[in-house]
Amino acid sequence: MVLAPNVYDAEPIPEAARAEIDRMLQSGDLFRYTAPENAPVTLLEQEFAALLGTKYALAVSSCSAALFLSLKALGLPRDARVLIPGFTFAAVPSSVLHADCLPVLCEVGENYRIDIADFTSRLDTVQAVIISHMRGHTSDMDAIMDLCDARGIPVIEDAAHSLGTTWGGRNIGTIGKIGCFSFQSYKLVNAGEGGIMVSDDADLIARAVIMSGAYEHNWAKHLSAPDAELEAAFARAQNQLPLYNLRLNNLSAAIIRPQLAEVERRVRDGRANHDYVAARLDTSPWMSVPAKLPPEERAPDSIQFNLVGMTEEDTRAFAQAAAARGVKVQVFGLSTDNARAFWNWRFLPGAAPVLPQTRAMLMRACDTRLPARLTRADLDLIADALVVAAEDVMGRGRAYGT
User: Fold this and answer.
1) Is the model's pTM score more than 0.90?
2) CA distance 23 to 28
3) Of the residues 228, 261, 294, which one is the last residue of a structural domain?
4) In this structure, is residue 1 part of a structural domain?
């Protein structure tokens, strides 16, 4: 029997990280502010900003921490309303609540992207927006930015799944005021945990740096070169803000830095893997992979597809049939505790959100990991398992009319 590929292990950490890790283990120099300059975290921030084409970057303990600090850096009043998509991870509304704000959810379409009409209808009631490019699917950023800019509403991009994705040639995460990325193990760059935020706004970054835990004058170690605008922003924020201590450590930075050179290759291979499996799945009448929007160039490490013509009972049977062939399929809406199904967010204040379009999508939207390291044989096994699992449930004859 052919075993299904392991889709959960990340790629090996590059050999280039080992010497730096060994040096730090010998010295115990793990705190980002111990060295007067050029600590590994500082170098990571410089390199990541250069990779994305932004002025500034701040590495922190997680993407959730980056989202939280972004909201706090905006200086929003308590109970400010923040618009988020109904399809996102529970950490996003959690970060909004942690920042003393209130999440407002909008509808998401069957292509996993924000429903612009519903988004627009809610926009005049909010003070900020977080756009989650969930599972790397980019909503219409041209329309979103036009709508928000016209109202003076700041946009934060939750780009946890979108490192390497572009929209109209621009890197996702650089279109809004602030972009937030993840280094958790299932993301394109893996440090186990960790996150980073990018911005061209000196005041926002200065406030976020201090709140991240740059106590006293440690913010000076974020200056890699003279920057009068940033220095003035730090001076304005000194002693004015609470410290939340959400720093990244040097060991994590040493693991991340050599992986940045792998991003282009991982994006290329991940996109090829996704598109190959998508073409196979689209041959089945029981599955549909939503197409990308024209300005979008994706950097996927998983594939999402919708089941067509299946009841809830059929959907559960399909997931079981795929699992029997060694391929795990997550149907976002079928688990009683899935953190991506908004009705499981019992911590939200007030009445439960009513988002019928998003709920219907989540009840048939499936997710399967496709890391960039998989071989063509691995991809064939996964695609075959999914197609045959659907035929097991719905019947080959029903599929082909014979």
Assistant:
1) yes
2) 8
3) 261
4) no
Residues 269 and 358 reside in one and the same domain: yes
CA distance 217 to 68: 22
Nearest to 10 by CA among 160, 190, 194, 159: 190
Question: Of 217, 238, 261, which residue constitutes the final position of a domain?
Answer: 261
Whether 279 maps to a domain, the answer reads: yes
| DSSP codes joined into one string, 246-258 | -BPPHHHHHHHGG
What are φ and ψ of residue 206, in 5° steps?
A: -60, -45
Range of the domain at 311: 263-400
pLDDT value at 359 more than 80: yes
Mean pLDDT of 183-195: 95
Res 2: pLDDT: 62
Same domain, 76 and 206: yes
pLDDT in tens, 218-237: 999 999 889 999 999 999 99
* Count of C-beta atoms within a 10 Å radius of residue 49: 21
Q: Give, in order, the Cα–Cα distances in Å from 95 to each of 17, 174, 338, 342.
A: 31, 20, 18, 15
Task: Say whether both 222 and 295 belong to one domain.
Answer: no
Tell me, yes or no, whether 270 and 200 share the same domain.
Answer: no
What tokens were used for 162? 């979108």
Q: Are the CB atoms for 188 and 270 separated by under 8 Å?
A: yes
12/320 Cα distance (integer angstroms): 31
Contact 118, 366 (CB under 8 A): no
**What is d(CA 241, CA 244) in angstroms, rounded to the nearest whole number?**
9
- Count of structural domains, the chain: 2
| Paired strand residues for 59 | 196
Residue 11 counted as domain residue: no
Query: What's the pLDDT score for residue 335?
Result: 82
